[in-house]
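Dear H.,

Thanks for agreeing to be a second pair of eyes. The structure we're designing against is below in token form, covering all 248 positions.
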């Protein structure tokens, strides 16, 4: 099972003597500290990468949504024109019902907006299901080109659903889950171990960088209430905790 970081870190101070761990395996407090620090560094690296990915998705959300929407709309318009029977070099019998059906889908896609993510998600799912149903039509089932168009459209609609569910509160949730302010006192015990890691393997700095970024929450947490009440002590308290973090 995956150990819990808060429990692991808060109980590490109790391991100042040799203890029994697992099936008779003897692990001293130093080895225990190494395991916990390595685990914290890997978790911090994972959280850092996750925040980067989510941040990038949020930044590109408008652009991605517009691109996927444009691709879907364009394909529906082309299929509507295809079944009009007026397009040159298309040996297909005119089908007014399919022509109007694809026109309606194109209009629905064009009017999609992601401000209400729940509503947009439901509409997109209905569109995907409708495209699945229309594939059984004889005029469509016998055409590989049309089936390819429908398959591409469903893929783009699926990407639109994924895009619409990437919201600002996702990043806020990650920040809450990765909060490290509880480990303020505990991390003092790991300063020497972190320094020894750097001396032994400079490449470990990449993991420690993410760990230090995670520790920024130690600075943020005490300042939340002070900032909310517009206290004049904000600058001095911020300077104190900043100096404490620099010691690491």
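And this is the sequence the design step returned. I haven't edited it by hand at all.
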């Amino acid at each position: 099972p995956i150990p819990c970081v808060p429990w692991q870190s808060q109980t590490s101070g109790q391991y100042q003597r040799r203890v029994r761990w697992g099936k008779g395996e003897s692990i001293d407090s130093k080895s225990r500290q190494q395991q916990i620090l390595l685990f914290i560094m890997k978790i911090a690296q994972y959280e850092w990468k996750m925040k980067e990915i989510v941040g990038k998705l949020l930044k590109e959300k408008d652009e991605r949504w517009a691109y996927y929407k444009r691709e879907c709309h364009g394909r529906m318009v082309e299929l509507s024109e295809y079944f009009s029977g007026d397009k040159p070099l298309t040996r297909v019998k005119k089908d007014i019902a399919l022509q109007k059906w694809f026109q309606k889908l194109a209009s629905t896609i064009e009017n999609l907006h992601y401000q209400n993510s729940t509503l947009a998600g439901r509409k997109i799912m209905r569109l995907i299901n409708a495209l699945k149903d229309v594939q059984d039509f004889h005029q469509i089932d016998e055409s590989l080109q049309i089936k390819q168009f429908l398959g591409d459209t469903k893929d783009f609609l699926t990407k639109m659903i994924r895009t619409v569910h990437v919201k600002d509160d996702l990043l806020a949730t990650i920040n809450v889950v990765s909060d490290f302010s509880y480990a303020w006192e505990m991390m003092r015990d790991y300063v020497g171990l972190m320094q020894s890691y750097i001396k032994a393997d400079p490449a470990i700095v990449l993991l420690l960088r993410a760990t230090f970024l995670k520790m920024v929450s130690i600075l943020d947490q005490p300042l939340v209430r002070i900032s909310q009440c517009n206290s004049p002590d904000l600058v001095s308290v911020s300077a104190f905790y900043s100096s404490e973090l620099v010691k690491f």
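Two observations from my side: Residues 181 and 218 are 4 Å apart (CA to CA). The chain has twelve helices and two strands.

Warmly,
E.
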